[in-house]
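Handout, section B. The chain below has 364 residues.
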Amino acid sequence: MVDLSTMKGIRVDPDARSVRAQGGVIWRELDHETQAFGLATTGGTVSNTGIAGLTLGGGLGWLMGEHGLTIDNLISADVVTADGQFRKASAVDHPDLFWALRGGGGNFGVVTSVEYQLHEVSQVLGGLVLYPLDQARDMLRFYRDFCTTLPDEAEAYAALLTAPQGIPVGAMLLGYNGPISEGETVLAPARQFGKPIADLVMPMPYSSRQMILDDPNATHGLQRYWRSALTEILSDDFIDLLVDGASKFSSPLSAIVFFYMHGAAVRVSPTDTAFAARRTQWDFDLIGQWANAAESASHIAWVKSLWDRLEHHLPGRAYVNHLASDDRQEKVRASFGQNYDRLRHVKRVYDPTNLFRLNANIAP
């Protein structure tokens, strides 16, 4: 491990609408500085994620429909490569390395700072609509169809999780990045569907929406084991299996989550960056989480058992940031898609001995 956590420098240029930040910064810290000027860039869905790691895998987030993935807003990166050399990567400096960093994961060096393009983002609409588990099947079927209606400014995710009262529930996680009145209209069908337990959608600062999923499910220090896939199809049979699995959560911190990719994030050519998954689809995550390490075996068994029932409904590829350490190499390769061979070539140039290999590895 290379620990960059003390590297916290952030410099915002409000005139150029850009920011440069060091590799130890997390998203809530970056948002704090950029929001002082009413600016932001696509930055994940929880606030305690490291900016560099999220970026290198692509960077799904609450702004991706309107402003693309995090990598689509990356202007440059400072990198220390395997030979110990400091390099700037951008469209004009080491463009092959810059291409590979935008979706190739941690395979090419230690990224010590990044520079992003920023956008005007201030007050947004956001929040969860919660349903009892006996409505979750219908909710997920509605959600599947509702996603196809979304404009670029809207985001709609979904989850099965455990409410603070200790009962499994279904949730739609909604956001709108334009005028609040427009967002109220666009998100109204989701908020009016069924008989929700609670509608928590409201206007809020962008930085607040970045934190709504933090606690307790995304706090640091939890034990985690998960499986993930990218899928363009959510069949009724698949949804039935998910709801049954949620009724048997082994931990109240575990969750089943969908992040919908659409809009600007999927209009980029698959070969323009190393991130090849440029199509309208869902990032599906089956996440086991728990606090006590002594309980690990039972919670890992829950994930594996449910995944065994789900896997034949899913393609064998995933969002690179959500690959598990024990995923098969075939799945890693499939997740880089048509860019894998070009990534291997760049790897041979910048890391021929595969020094950076404890990752979703691309062998030189």
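Note. The chain has a mean pLDDT of 97. Compare this with the example in section A.
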